[in-house]
Amino acid sequence: MEVIETDEGFLRAFVTIARTGVFPYLRSGKICKEAKLPEELFSKETLDTIKLKPVADGHPPTSDNRGLIVPENFKKYVIGTLGDSVEVIDNKRIRTIEIVYDSKLIGELKAGEKREVSIGFECYRDETPGVFEGEQYDVVQREISINHLSHVPHGRAGEEVTIHLDSADEIGIQLDEETMSKLGKKTTTQDEDPTQGDPTSPTEEQISKGILKVLGSMFSKLIGGSEEAEPSADDKKNSELQSQIDALKKENEELKKKGASNVQKPDPNAQEQDAALEEQIRNAANERIQLIETGKAVIPEFKADGLSNREIRLKVIETILPSKKVAKDEKDEIVNAVFDAAVEVAGDKFFVNKPDATSVRIDEADIEKLRIARLDMREVK
Question: 3-state SS string over 140-182?
Answer without folding.
Answer: EEEEEEEEEEEEECCCCCCCCCEECCCHHHCCCCCCCCEEEEC
